[in-house]
Give the backbone structure.
Amino acid sequence: QYGWLIRNIHANGASMFFICIYLHIGRGLYYGSYLYKETWNIGVILLLLVMATAFVGYVLPWGQMSFWGATVITNLLSAIPYIGTTLVEWIWGGFSVDNATLTRFFTFHFLLPFIIMGASAVHLLFLHETGSNNPTGLQSNPDKIPFHPYFSYK
């Protein structure tokens, strides 16, 4: 059926990946990870890269079908002062969704994950710089009993 299974696994896996990213961000907000500015900012850049990858991947199957979606995106982008029109022409390759646009989006959908992997390595590098050796926050000595007689007599 023309790759129905792999397309659905790809799309649903991407949705699950976003759920994991949102949980990761929520955990970072809860534990105050935003205080590590470099690590947090690289994480924000990572989120934007993943969102861009998802967007170009989401638009790929449209073809000429969704003129409404293309119109909405065109209107949103063209409202950006100074660069809006140029941005629209660069993203769509003009003012319509055609084969050149889909080729460009396929290229971005293929290349951006490699850029994301590099940014993830930098994200981990900065995390390592802050000295985070317990990222999950799990207790490292669960075998120790706090009220053992040894501690009582000591």
Remarks:
- The two ends are 72 Å apart (CA to CA).
- The domain at 4-131 is CATH 1.20.810.10 (Cytochrome Bc1 Complex; Chain C).
- DSSP finds six helices and no strands in the chain.
